[in-house]
């Protein structure tokens, strides 16, 4: 039996403050950790339906995003199974709707990856800036820990990179 393919997919728009949280988390994970070849880290940005082919290749999909869930800024969320469509319909941005459509379209390809969404309640997704709010920035390590916990659940190994080897990391972006 071949190794299960795990995709860590960061989605969001880095031009709008906390909206880019998912992308920022993937960037940090690429810089800080080494993963086996069966794990891909993907900067999905706001590609929506263009992610369909990429998503359908995964056996397990860990999506990282800013999630508006009527909580307090900085609240962390883990969403899976039947709760995914409901939470996204409550949502906030067009890329989330496109993401749900892409996930639904995977059914047409007869390959829906086991999907978990992790993220944070954003403080600001409207201000045009590359900087995240302090509230969201302070939760990046916690979100990374949530993603690593998902890898642990799947028995996927990873290891921290030494501090000196954290630059010039190749990125998988679309």
What is the tally of beta strands? 8
Could you name the ranges where pLDDT drops below 50 across 5 or more consecutive residues? 89-95, 168-174
Number of helices: 6
Helix content: 25-40%
Query: Would you tell me the overall average pLDDT?
Result: 81
Overall shape: it is: globular
Instruction: Estimate the strand proportion.
Output: 15-25%
Secondary-structure content class: alpha/beta
**CATH architecture label name:** 3-Layer(aba) Sandwich
- Main sheet: which strands, in order across? 5-6-4-1-3-8
Rounded to the nearest angstrom, the radius of gyration is 15 Å
Q: What letter string, H or E per element, gives the SSE order?
A: EHEEHEEHHEHHEE
CATH topology name, in short, is Rossmann fold
> How many structural domains are formed by the residues?
1
CATH uppermost class: Alpha Beta
Distance between the termini: 29 Å
Oligomer: single chain
Q: Find the CATH superfamily.
A: HybD-like
Largest sheet: 6 strands, mixed
